[in-house]
Amino acid sequence: MSGMFPGFLILSAALFAIGAVGVLVRRNPLVVFMSIELMLNAANLALITYARYTDTMAGQIFALFVIAVAASEVVVGLALITGVYRSGRRLDLDELSEMSE
Amino acid sequence: MMFPAEITQLAAAPWLPLHFVPAANLVGILPILIVGGGAVMVLLADLLVPRRGNLVLPVATAIVLVGALGTAAGQWAVHASNPVVFNGAYAEDRFALFADFVILITALAVVALSPGYLRRRGMEEGEYYILLLASVTGMLVLTGALNLIVVFLGIELLSIPLYVLAGFARDEPLPQEAAMKYLLLGGFASGFLVYGMALIYGETGHTGLVAIHHVLTTTAVSQQFDPMLLAGIALLAVGLSFKVSAAPFHWWTPDVYQGSPALVTTFMSVATKVAAFAVFLRLFSATLAPYRAEWQVPIAVVAIISMVFGNVVALAQTSVKRLLAYSGIAQAGYVMIGLAVGRPDGTEASLYYLAGYAFMNTGAFAVITILSRRGEDCDRYSQLSGLGRRQPVLAGLMAIFMLSLAGFPLTVGFFGKFFLFSAAIHDGQLPLAIWGILTSAVSLFYYLRVILIMFSGMPQTASDEEIQVAGVSVGGAAVAAPESAVAVGVPAGLVVVLAGAGTLVLGIFPALIYTLLQGITVVHG
Question: Is the ipTM of this complex over 0.90?
Answer without folding.
Answer: yes
